[in-house]
Amino acid sequence: MSRSAVAGRAPLWRDRTFGTYWVAQSLSAAGDSFAYLAVPLLVLQATGSVAQMGLLTAVAGAASVVAGIFGGVLVDRYDRRTLMIVADLTRLVLYALVPLAWLAGPQVWLLFVVLPICEAAGMLFQVAAVTAVRNLVDSDWITEANGRLQATYAAAAVLGPLLAGVVAARFGPATAIAVNAASFALSAAGLWLIRLRPVRVDEGVARQRPLAEFLAGARFLWRQPVLRALTVLLSVFIFLTYGFVDVLIYHVTHDLGGSEGTVGTVLGLAALGTVAGALLVAPLRRLRGFGPTWIGAHAICGFAVAGVGLATTVPAVTTLTAVYLCCLSVGGICSMSLRQEITPDHLLGRVTSAFWSTHYALGPAGAVVLTWAAGRYGAPAVTLAAGAGCLLVAVGGLFTPIRRAGAEPAAGQPGLRPAPAGGTAG
């Protein structure tokens, strides 16, 4: 759609369908932040082991990667809204089991059953949610829509950990997980009220077996030079940072003597960085271009990660974590928007699935290594090494097509071509 046509439409904030989706997912994000804090605290409270925290993160991450392989196929084959509702209801039921089981005492084994299934459902939901943006707004508004969604998610995540810390300290982490379960009911209700635009399907493409369809997305990803480089570099970055929150919680509680409430305050205030990143990403990308924005964001992430473990005060840890989350938000929204802009709609689910399942594949192993090393050598040594690795990822981007990708990736950039607009207007 041309910009003149967009100018004649109502502003994005007045789009009722997008607004309903926006509110529902923001409430769900606030609930997610309870589990984000409560699950590691449950394990640490029951076992006292940061390595056990890392193992649970790894098992859940592995389930997410496996789900990601076929999640894109499902998203491209079936109604995206229905899949998201099913994923929400699945997580509602499973997370609700945790506080019920904890009434009889700690049941750490249950987390190793519930969390992987919930993470698999969450991966399906995330793939569908990313592709749904193309069916909610016009292509000219994709980056703005992503920025607004991420900013609101992050704003909800500011309040979420603060409340989760209070709830966990007063009523226990299991109660905080119950709040997260309830949030999925709100998300499902919001999704029920909206309708997505129809997916544009290439009539000349015959349906294949699920693995073949997944590989179609992977081939598209690999043939795009910028997307290929992003996948490789982000695989290393995820390996280095997948267990970062576990190490952060361990550092605050073990090294700095903080409580559950302290951890909630750190994560809640640090989430302001995600808000800032989501608000800054669109103007930064317009001003500096995709490449410099992505590379610069990941370079700063490296310095922030290194500093967290070396920080000796809670305010310093909070500030550095906020910087890390800000730059993580900028880099993540940039790469997500790029995929949405250049991928044909009928392939978007599979390309997103291939992208995530590939670069998250090393995450579970990274979580195990990072948390084991933190327990053995201490958080400072681990975060210093991880931060140095993140900085090398950013430097690596300078020697790939990422560096040359500009502010308008669909126009005139080598190896990139625009995708057709998703759906129809109205």
Automatic annotation (TrEMBL):
The chain crosses the membrane at residues 21-43, 55-75, 82-102, 108-130, 151-171, 177-194, 229-250, 262-282, 294-314, 320-339, 351-373, 379-399. The keyword Lipid biosynthesis does not apply. It is a multi-pass membrane protein. InterPro entries: MFS (IPR011701), MFS_trans_sf (IPR036259). The keyword Manganese does not apply. Gene3D superfamilies: MFS general substrate transporter like domains. Keywords: Cell membrane, Membrane, Transmembrane, Transmembrane helix. It is found in: Cell membrane. This is MFS transporter. It comes from Micromonospora noduli. The lineage of its organism: Bacteria, Bacillati, Actinomycetota, Actinomycetes, Micromonosporales.
